[in-house]
Structures are given as C-alpha cells and as structure tokens.
Design a protein that fits this description.
The chain contains 21 helices and 20 strands. By secondary structure, the protein is an alpha/beta fold.
C-alpha cells in the first residue's frame, strides 16, 4: 500500500442498483473506505469488499446532515493520507446539483490524488424510467433544469421565470429537481410569467426503483395532485408537451414485477444471476447474502479421501460449492481428476452438474427430483449395493442421504467436509430490517434451509414472522414454515430458473397493482 491513497468521486446513479457505471462498480470492488450519501442505494455497498469501512454522510431526520461538508472533506483527506482507496459515493452524478465540485477542490488543495467518475443523473434517468423523453422532434427540442434548492436559498423572485416560461412555450421542456416542497409556488410563477395553465406536467417520485410512482396532470393542477397522492421526495417534475408521450412509452411500470421488492438470500457469489433475472422482470431485488463459504475446521478427512479417491465407486456432489471445494483442494495437494479413475459421479441438481462440466466431468446420475432423497433411485439400488461412496459436502449438513445409502446396502459411505457455511453480516442488513419494519418487502426467496435459518437469525425471528416467502423445494419450505414464514411460492422443479418463473406467476395472479397513479 502506498503512503498516499486516492479518492474516487463516484456517481452512484439515480437509484436502481444496476445503473451504476462499470467504472463505478470497479472502484467499489477495490475500496478500503466508502463514504456515501442519503440518496445512494445501500445495495451498492454489497459491491465493496466485506472488510471495507462504510461511512454514512447523508442527512438525518429533519434534514440535518449526518456530517458537515468540512467534516466530509477532512474524512476523505485523512483516509487518503493513510494510504486508503476512498470511494466518495454520491447520488446521481457527483458534479451535477451537488457539492462534488467543492469536494474535488478540497482534495486538490490538500494535494490528494483523485478521480471523478461520472454517474447517470436522476434528471435524465427518472423521466426515462417514467416513459418521458426530455426532447422529441415533435414535442420539444430543448430542455432546461431547475432545482428547488435555488428557490429555497435565493427566493422565487430571483428566478428567471419569464425566460423559463418562454422556453417552455417555444417547444421546450422544464425539469424541476428537489422542488416538491415549492411546487405550487413554482407553478404559479410560471403561469404568471405566461405559461399556459394547461401545459402538460408529470411528477415522478422515487424513480427507477420499486417505489416509483408517477402522476400526470397540468401545470395548474400538478401541485395539488402531488399533495393528494402524498408523493414524497425525492421527486422530479417534468413540464412540457413531452409528458404526453408517457401514455405510450411507460415501459418500466409495465414490467410484470414492477413495484415488487424481493430479498435474495443466496450466497453472494451465486445471488447475482437470480437477482438480475428478477430485475429484468421489474423487481427491486435486494441481495442479502445469508451464507458464506469458508474452509472447513480441518481438511484431514477430505485429504485422506483425496489420497485414495480412485478407490470409490461413486462420488456424490450435493451442491456446486462441493465441486469447487473438492477440485480446489485436489489442486492444492498436488492431485488431479485423473486419479478418480473409474469412480462414477452423481450430482444433485443441474447447477451441480453444470459445475462438474466446468472441470470436464460428466455426471453419470442425476435425480429427476433435485434433492438428496432421490439419489438412490437415480444411481440405481443395484449399483448402490456394495459400493464405496464419497460425499464431499458442507461441514454441517442433513444426514438423510447417508442413512438412505446405508439402508440401500452401500459398503461404505464416507462424508468428507470440504467447506463450511458461515453467517455473514451483509452491508444491506440495516436496510432490510428497516424495510421489514415498514412492511415494504413483498417476498423473500430462499434456496436452502440454511438461508432460511440464517435470515431469521439476522433480521430477528419476530420481524420475519409472517413474511411471504418463496422456497426452492419442499425441505426449504418446511424449514420456512417452522420459522413462521408464509410460503406462497414453491416451484415444481427445484431450480433457480423455476423459482424465478414461479415468483413471476405468483405476482401475476395477485390483485395488488402497485406504481402509477
């Protein structure tokens, strides 16, 4: 580590976790310290290393800043001087409508190396997610941005209302940011300056996320509608003919899982594809890993099994993690797959079989029902009888499979701990607890009994009680019910793809229609 670190002034995007730039995600993945603001989606903290220090620098209740600007500047400087990589994570773009320029100047004055990583501004992203293009050849050829902070700080009399009204009359679009508290005053000033009260307008609150709500009105009525619908900040108001296009272009709010907030409890390494599939359907998928894998307390049993791995008739893998763990340990101890000799391989589930193929291994048996209880029939009772069987698996796991193999006449069943699962402390735990307390989580998805048990332990048993749950299979569902969860989704096939489809179908049949007003 160098004696002087670096600060990355990074735009977090408008809210949706997958709208951060690739460069922003890269620096987060390598951060030692993350200093983030109120409008930053806390799920982005999952991209930082588990050991990274996270510091909230946003606002408390009542609008008071958690940290004053001078204190934020000094934090960045002090951490950089200590040789750390500091990500200063700011909502939207770091330099637009914020104090990013002031922070860059403070770093420059202190002689700190820094980089500015642009982000997608809510000023353009939120209208896009509401189906409102800010310019259009037939509806508006230019756009002006106005912040409510200017009205609050300098008074409405200092704003160029005549110029703004003229711009909107002449095929222009006005975008008002942070203006919800002053919307009635802004509308009145624009009308007094000559803008037609019937000018189309739209207000979008909490854009790009599960809480996005949009109302369409006229300039004269938009403030009352926002108040009546209780749209809360952050909100963006668009004034101009382009808002008429929303009726045809509102793509995001038409997605099948729009407005649904779903917690994904899989291990961090395997959660991303599942979460992305749900986001493609419009859900706000919160990745909250409840299990992590680590080395077992001892490799002694696994090493002994590896030393005689060619003596087994069958090697049964119950999870893809077990495949990786065995192959990694074989390489670490100077062994390779050729030593498996004539041993047959069985896999429980297509994900496990796919992981085997990654190492050039083909499963000779895989049960049609993806659970341990079906493995004997998949291998065939005649081939189990008298067989020597190795099961590389988690240090703590269900014992049902061992008993079934022994009952079927296996000569020896050896279980070798290849890894263990531990309970992490994810960066989004506080977020999930707050959402649970507010009844703002629609569903939690579980792919194993351990994810259920750990989730309930992490958020609190009472907080989880009654929560709607999706369970990948009957064992997971049974565990969920035993913890007081309400299992409403259980696919016929025990795969993540089937679970995703079942979640979509469940909400398609639900009567609740969140989102647009």
């Amino acid at each position: 580590m160098s004696s002087i670190g670096k600060v990355y002034l990074t735009g977090a995007g408008p809210g949706a976790v997958d709208l951060i730039t690739m460069r922003g995600a890269q620096v987060l993945a390598d951060a030692d310290v993350v200093i983030y603001d109120q409008l930053v989606n806390e799920q982005l903290l999952n991209l930082a290393p588990a050991a990274a220090e996270t510091i909230y620098a946003g606002k408390k209740g009542g609008g008071e800043r958690a940290l004053e600007q001078d204190a934020i500047n000094q934090l960045m400087i002090d951490h950089a001087r200590a040789g750390r990589k500091v990500v200063r994570l700011k909502g939207g773009d770091p330099l637009i409508f914020g104090r990013g320029g002031e922070e860059a100047a403070a770093l420059a004055q202190a002689g700190i190396d820094f980089e500015i990583i642009p982000g997608i501004s809510s000023a353009i992203a939120v209208p896009a997610y509401a189906g409102i293009p800010l310019t259009h050849r037939d509806y508006g050829s230019f756009v002006a941005f106005v912040t409510g902070h200017e009205v609050e700080a300098h008074g409405s009399t200092t704003m160029p209302w005549d110029e703004l009204a003229r711009a909107a009359r002449e095929r222009g679009t006005l975008v008002l940011l942070m203006a919800a508290a002053h919307l009635a005053e802004v509308a009145a000033r624009l009308i007094d300056a000559g803008m037609s009260p019937q000018t189309p307008a739209a207000a979008i609150a909490h854009g790009t996320g599960a809480s996005q709500r949009t109302v369409s009105e006229t300039l004269a009525t938009i403030a009352k509608r926002v108040a009546d619908e209780r749209l809360t900040p952050p909100a963006i108001v668009v004034i101009g003919q382009v808002t008429l296009l929303r009726e045809r272009l509102a793509w995001f709010e038409r997605r099948p899982l729009f407005g649904r907030r779903i917690v994904i409890t899989r291990a961090r390494a395997s959660a991303a594809p599942f979460a992305q599939a749900l986001r493609e359907l419009g859900a706000d998928a919160i990745e909250m890993p409840t299990i992590e894998t680590a080395a077992p307390d001892s490799y002694a049993e696994l090493d002994r099994a590896i030393a005689r791995i060619g003596s087994y008739n069958w090697i049964i893998f119950t999870a893809a993690t077990g495949v990786d763990a065995l192959m990694t340990r074989m390489a670490q101890t100077d062994h390779d797959v050729r030593e498996m000799g004539a041993a047959h391989i069985a896999a429980i589930g297509p994900a496990t079989a796919a992981r085997l193929r990654h190492y050039g291994l083909i499963a000779a048996a895989m049960p049609a029902e993806y659970r341990a209880e079906a493995i004997v029939s998949a291998i065939g009772p005649q081939r189990v009888k008298g067989a020597r069987i190795l099961i590389p698996r988690a240090q703590v796991a269900r014992e049902a499979l061992i008993g079934m193999l022994q009952a079927a006449g296996a000569a020896a069943v050896e279980v070798a701990p290849a890894y263990k699962t531990i309970q992490p402390r994810p960066a989004v735990l506080g977020l999930v607890q707050r959402l649970l307390a507010g009844g703002e989580i629609d569903l939690a998805a579980f792919t194993s009994s351990s994810t259920v048990t750990n989730f309930c332990a992490m958020v609190g048993a009472e907080a989880a009680r009654g929560l709607a749950a999706a369970a990948i299979g009957p064992i997971t569902a049974q565990t969920a019910r035993s913890h007081g969860l309400n299992v409403v989704v259980q696919p016929r096939s025990y795969t993540v793809d089937a679970l995703c489809d079942a979640i979509r179908d469940y909400f398609a049949s639900a009567k609740k229609s969140p989102g647009s007003a």
